[in-house]
Design a protein that fits this description.
Elements: E1 2-6, E2 9-14, E3 23-26, E4 42-45, E5 49-53, H1 54-61, H2 67-82, E6 86-88, E7 91-99
Parallel strand pairs: 1-3, 3-7
Antiparallel strand pairs: 1-2, 4-5, 5-7, 6-7
Length: 105
């Protein structure tokens, strides 16, 4: 699962069926952090990690009605929790940020 972010674009979720991987792909330079409008979706923890809202992930996945997907998602959250990569207030999962420079114009 990948959360894609870029300046002046809403975040989008891809590879929703891949519940074995989780990352944030930023089509921006780390200096552009202030330009990324990510309220209630994502909060950066330095430049290398970010917390992503569980509620947003569920909604953006389009799979919240699938019992099998939800079971896989909950297994992913349990795995992340074992490593300290979850938080409860608000519910979020921590992911590694992959910086890909500025988005194409």
């Amino acid at each position: 699962m990948e959360v894609h972010i870029a300046p002046d674009q809403p975040p989008r979720l891809t590879a929703v069926e891949d519940l074995k991987r989780f990352s944030i792909v930023a089509a921006a330079d780390p200096a552009a952090l202030a330009d990324l409008a990510l309220d209630r979706v994502l909060a950066f923890e330095g430049q290398d990690h970010a917390w992503v809202s569980v509620d947003w992930l569920m909604a953006a996945s389009g799979q919240s009605g699938s019992e099998s997907w939800r079971a896989g998602f909950e297994a992913m959250r349990a795995f992340a929790a074992k490593h300290g990569w979850t938080r409860d207030n608000p519910p979020a999962i921590r992911g590694h940020v992959v910086w890909q420079g500025a988005p194409p114009s």
